[in-house]
Amino acid sequence: MKPRLLNTWPERPITYGGDYGGDTVSILCFESTVPITQVDMGLPQLAVLPARVPPNTPVASQGESSLPAPGSDYEQVIVFRNMGLAMAEDEILVADGLIRKYSVERGCAAGEDFVLIRVVTEHPVTAVQVPGTSWGFAGNCLPGSERMHADGLSKSTAHPADHSYAPVEGPPFKTAFSFSRGPLHRLFAGKLVALDPGHGGKDTGIRGPVNLLEKDISMQIAAEAQTLLRASGALPFLTREKDEPLNDHGRAQVVLRRKAEFCVQIHASGGRSPLSRKYHVYAKPGCTESQALAGQVAFALRERIGMAIPEVEYLEELSLYEVPTIRVEPLCLSHFVDEANFRAPLFRKRIAQAIYNGLARHLAEIPSEPRTQPDPTPPSPSVCSLLLSAREKSPLTTVDPWEKPAVLRIRTHLITEKDDPVGVVKTYTKDIADKTDIVGIAESVVAIMQGRAIDPDTVQPSFLARLVSRFAHPDASVSAPRSMQMAIEEVGSLRILIAAAAGLWGKITRRRGLFFKVAGHQVAEIDDSGGTMPPYDRSIIMGPKDPNQVARIIRRQTGLWTLILDVNDKGCVDVLGSSIPLSKERENTLKSLLKTNPFGNDDQKTPLVIIKPSYTPPQLHL
User: Fold this and answer.
1) What is the rounded CA–CA span in Å between residue 613 and residue 275?
2) CA dihedral 240, 244, 248, 251 (to 10 degrees)
3) Exposed, middle or buried: residue 500 (CB in 10 Å: 0-12, 13-18, 19+)?
4) How big is the CA angle at 415 (ends 83 and 346), to the nearest 5 degrees?
5) Looking at residue 618, what DSSP letter applies?
6) What is the pTM of this model?
7) 14, 336, 582, 617: which is deepest, by most CB within 10 A?
């Protein structure tokens, strides 16, 4: 296998103790076919981007946008030398309050392949060594120890003695960089933030087409935002801690009594038409700070989840609050797609993250008071290449090549109906896969390439679809009338009726899954809105047509054993198609190997994996 970068993803911020003094860090991870032992770092540079709109910018008139533009950001360059790119070149949105985004690009200079990583942060921080690493590669790259060459590469002049190595087992090999979230801690430290989840008790608010309630949604988002704010040193609190009624005056009194500095009301929008969608962010009339905060949160919502919020509006009832207060309505609960999206935990986390990001950017715009004590000296900028194996660190055995196979996840471009399965496999397995390897493809991506992503707005649910969907489990993919209608069109009304009767019997006898057993795998493979990666998170994804035939065609044209797989985050693995018949023992081995779901259904964009049944790690010559 040639040295190739396979995949990359941002980890959720984590907190370290010890020498870091409890510092919270953002982490970017990379996976490669061989250990990354040649890493160069460029100095952080201020990116030339538009400045933010000042906090006292007036609300825009109708038809204009009052949302702030991105502020000036900081860019840091990292180079992996002697490394090619198997994954697609990509720009990855992080938007975790510190790292805005990063890009992965391929390059070649003087016959040497390299991978260029551009990390854009909202505050001037650099990569720091992840603590607790007792093995791997760590090269100190102090400011001024780099020199730029004409080929655009940054060459480290650090002495080889400054580098330490230790061989580890792979592939894939994991490389991680961490970025201190200290600037965010300084912004939020000790800030009292009120989170006001709307409705409660008998006041349920808006009810979704299936069964979601606004009072529950607002509480879940508030709890997620509270967790994020606490991790940054803020002191957030909820105006209601449980499902209980609380009127507007009572909420305002809670905020006043606890001396909050800001208040964020969380609600959902809705309308009579199930096809209408509108999202709102409201500001307190006559309060410029409230309007500035609302603008930052509205921009963060648009950035993180693509919500169309054209302007900030005023809401008179927010005048009851004596502190800068905003109301966000980031979800149109009466729309069936938004309700389906909200069932995904990641969607709720994104809304909470957008609220956090808006608060952080607003605080960054407020002039800070002079510090009585200097900031602690930050750790020396360094880069840490963690040669972490995705497998156990015990030696490989050659008795059974299936005892410890390697699973390589490959990040692809956004695959659409314009792509061809054979072409995708050829592009992303080049220089990596051998004839003894297995290629696994996510079934939803195969269906998308077959044009089986259905716009739910084009589906008219029948009476039968509306009736049967009412009895489906709320988390089932066919709990929405439109997805149930697609199930009826796939297998017929009679089969769905029989399956519904079986499901009803299963509820009485407490036997789960009878509906799908009778309806068949074609129905079980349907993904409702929110079940896959954007922009297809707003589509109904049917199961792939003739997956065995697709697998055989790929095998015939690439020579690789191919599997079409349906894997979810609950550990369920189904082999829908295979180019070669699988024995029960081998199928069970594959299911055990893949139950952690290496396929990325969302931002991960890793719908393709290579399984290497037998692999000997390369010897490192250092």
Assistant:
1) 49
2) -20
3) buried
4) 90
5) P
6) 0.79
7) 336
